[in-house]
Amino acid sequence: MSVRLPDVLPDEDVLDFVQRLHGGFDARLYQQVLGAANAFKEGDAAIGVAAADEDSRQRARALLARTRLSDVHTHPPFEDRLHIFSLEAWDAARWRRVADWTLGQLKDFLLTADEAAVHDALDGLPSDVIACVVKLMSDAELKAVGGRIFHPLPGSRVGARGYLGARLQPNSPTDHPEDIRWQVFNGWAFAVGDVVLGTNPVSSDVASVAVVEAALHDVLVTFGLTDVMPHCVLAHIDVQAQVEALQPGTTGIWFQSLGGNEAANRTFDVTLEKMVAHAAARTGPWGLYFETGQGADATNGHHHGTDMLIHESRKYGFARALKRRVAVAQAGAGRDAAPWVHVNDVAGFIGPEVFRTREQLVRCCLEDIVMGKLHGLTLGLDVCSTLHMDVTLDDLGWCQEQLAEAGPAYLMALPTRNDPMLSYLTTSFQDHVRLRERYGLKVDDRMWAFFQRLGVIDADGRPTKHFGDPRHVYVHYRRHKGDTRTEAELRAEAEVQMARVRARGVPLAVGHGETPWTLEPTLEQDLRSLYEDAKVGLWSELSEATVESLPGAVRLRTRSEDRRDYILHPPSGESLEGASEAMVRALRERHGGRYDAQLVVSDGLDPRSLMDAGHLAPFVDTLRAELDAQGWRVAPEVLVVKHGRVRAGYQVGRLLFGDEEDARPCALVHVIGERPGSGHHAYSAYLTAPSASTWARQGAVDHDRTRLIAGISDTSVQPEDAAREAVRILAELAATARTMPPSAGDTAAMG
Questions:
Q1: The pTM of the whole model exceeds 0.85
Q2: Per-residue pLDDT, 387
Q3: Domains of the chain, start order
């Protein structure tokens, strides 16, 4: 459903319009008018708040431009405790100076007023007002506003005018410390990586995260950079806290993904109280690192009828309030209140259900840069694309060019544009070199001096003969550790290690093409081959031979009409169609309560991951044997879901196990083909084991109750190892289910 607005009256604002059409305030129409003012994105259309046509969009914007800030503030499109908490960092005195302005006046002020005056007003702007004024701006106006507001991190030039930083993202398909270290060396060889060394872990097991934390920490300690930049393993913030408790001093800045409302945050296993407590514990030099992104709230079922911009802006409001809490904690510990808090907007990671085109990607990033800056935040970008969006490798370069003028604090940085673990497209080292050259941008001064000491750039910042050579950085690393072997010996050792890294599917960028900002030609060819391979995987179908090879296979399907519907409209793959639902109910009757563990297999975004030899069968065989050995009663059937997503598994679990009177844990192992693009053809295992009484409650089981093992294939996480780890995790989940009061978890999950 889309929003079609009839003609509006002269001088009419949003509230006048709603009053005229409905004879009073109507919350749903109000939400629709706010949403209709947005530039078109699929995510808004999915929740029924996108404008039906350009005329309706312009009418909505005209209404909004005439609306007073105070009226927007006193008519929140939805309310919850997070919204109230975000006002803690809101300056009421500054607000009173602008409250009677219209949104049109605020837009003009942001574009034309003296920059000092703009900065002075920012703390007086609440999140909903910030979202609404951004709706009124063209892309060019967003670039102009973004290009005049900067919030450097304390004691640095990260986020300052004329600077473009980089979060090194040294991801490994197996969390291998060697992969991670070498990607850091690789980035530094290109004079890239000055904001944070931030790794996305495959495993969120505390022991595994601790190993990765230690590897990153070691690099910073060895080079004497622990006071210059932090490191971070992007596991759940609770896991990071556990690692710090076990190994004090080994964690750097703490990370957490944020939603725009309380219900969405519960999907991330985050509560307001939890985040406030963590902020209060950040008394050292490094504070908090947040990731956000338009669409996460809606795709997790928590949009509250409200458009994506307002949810995204409220995430920044939440971050602003938590930043204030970190400052208070620092002051309470006798330190200067200088919170090192930044936000990374991950725009494009979800997929075509949020937006599909490069133009929409740029629009989203521009909106988020400006909203973040208007909240007083240091905001970076992950300008990224999944393989099922209509954004190509070359499109990403165009997008980066469009966004540079808006002054993002930093971008991601990988050896190529393809992440070897997350299977999505983002920013490469060479992109940073190109953007710095084209726009005259710098990296943080302290790291620039470090790169000069390394000898990868000269006194004028130009590439030296060592530029793009991670082996050279490795030699310095070993020298800092006191290694006295000859350079030839160390470089030979480096070659051996680099070969091992590449063999695990992690590319390393050595050298460059015709210019310092182009990939070495063979690596460029490899990158494009992976891209084309991913497109093949995306449109593959699970073969009948694979299904028939699974003992006791029961064929189910979701409500997706076909593969295209499944890819472009993910909710269609989150629930079973009627006949399949009836089959699961019949299966439950047949089981008669004899089993407490069920295996489900879904094709996912790359069915080849389940069809490749040595992938699925070893996992299934080992899983069954290990579950049997641990006393689980495993159902003999394997439920094979065509066009299935993770939440389809939750529905299966509720249909099979749900019993309000039964407190025993019941396990569901849901195997799904991952996004293609890494070349591993990997799949994931989603592990859920609440009590049967929890399964019985509609909506009580969601992602916050599920653990994940990602990157399973014969070239990354070995299937047999993944199966054994799955059984270990299920034992932990079952123990939690046995000790958790039935009502406590259910209430938290259902909101």
A1: yes
A2: 86
A3: 14-141 (no CATH), 144-460+500-525 (3.20.20.70), 541-739 (3.40.50.11240)
